[in-house]
Design a protein that fits this description.
With about 240 residues, this protein is of the alpha/beta class. It is built from seven helices and 14 strands. Helix content is about 25%, strand content about 25%. Strands 1, 4, 5, 6, 8, 9, 10, 11, 12 and 13 form a ten-stranded mixed sheet that branches. Strands 2-3 form a two-stranded antiparallel ribbon. Strands 7-14 form a two-stranded antiparallel ribbon.
């Protein structure tokens, strides 16, 4: 399975830091955010990674190169205009070879077993698997409602209209999708990946939730960026767990 890291964002909430540096290269514990995720992928035996680029993209490409220094092969998907999560993944679709792909948000730090996630997706024959978190502010992040057998029923109120018992979750920015869900996504047009997920839910496909129990941080604002630095110093997430060897 290939992986994709979404790194095209403008990083507007982190300005002025992102005026001259892309968000993915901001250091946490002295190491760029995107490198934390590359090392996590390496540890879980991923080999091929697609990274989409827009804002200050050449800086990311220069910093990471071919990926050989991380034991990976990196391919870059250039976006002259920003395409969002749906359009960005659609543009990179030719690199997936028709196989499911693991997608990570480039501004997220997390720690959990990616191998177990991939096995869950495979054995459940899911069309998509979204990594979710229990969070008291789930509605503020974007409420994901999960019914029986891990089936996602609604995402931010969109999906199945009938009333069933659900548990509230928030989307953690990590997901696996079958490229067939991209069939109706328009190429070269900005869109959200949530749209084809909702359409798949409406069709009765297996769009499943997988709970994350480990460390997670969205490094999207100055406050959360500061918190992530504190978390590294406190040992809540450790770079030595992500050795290249």
């Amino acid at each position: 399975m290939k992986a994709m890291i979404l790194a095209a964002g403008l990083g507007t909430r982190l300005r002025p830091l992102t005026n001259t540096m892309p968000k993915a290269l901001l250091p946490v514990g002295g190491i760029p955010i995107i490198v934390w995720n590359l090392l996590l992928l390496k540890r879980h035996r991923f080999h091929d990674v697609v990274i989409n680029l827009h804002h200050l993209g050449p800086m990311i490409e220069q910093a990471l190169g071919t990926g050989s220094k991380f034991g990976l092969r990196i391919i870059y998907s250039q976006e002259p205009m920003i395409l969002g999560t749906g359009g960005g993944i659609k543009q990179a679709e030719p690199y997936f070879s028709g196989e499911p792909v693991l997608v990570l948000n480039g501004d997220t730090l997390f720690e959990f077993d990616l191998g177990a996630l991939c096995e869950f997706h495979r054995t459940r024959n899911a069309s998509a698997t979204l990594v979710l978190r229990e969070d008291p502010d789930a509605a503020r992040w974007g409420l994901v409602e999960v019914g029986a057998n891990d089936q996602i029923v609604r995402i931010t109120g969109r999906g199945l209209s009938h009333s069933v018992s659900t548990i509230p979750r928030m989307f953690a920015g990590v997901h696996i999708l079958n490229p067939r869900l991209l069939r109706d996504v328009k190429k070269g047009v900005e869109s959200s990946i949530i749209d084809p997920y909702v359409a798949a839910i409406d069709r009765g496909e297996a769009v499943l939730g997988y709970d994350l129990k480990g460390y997670w941080s969205d490094v999207g604002t100055a406050e959360r960026y500061t918190q992530a630095e504190q978390d590294v110093r406190a040992g809540l997430i450790r770079l030595e767990d992500r050795r290249l060897a």
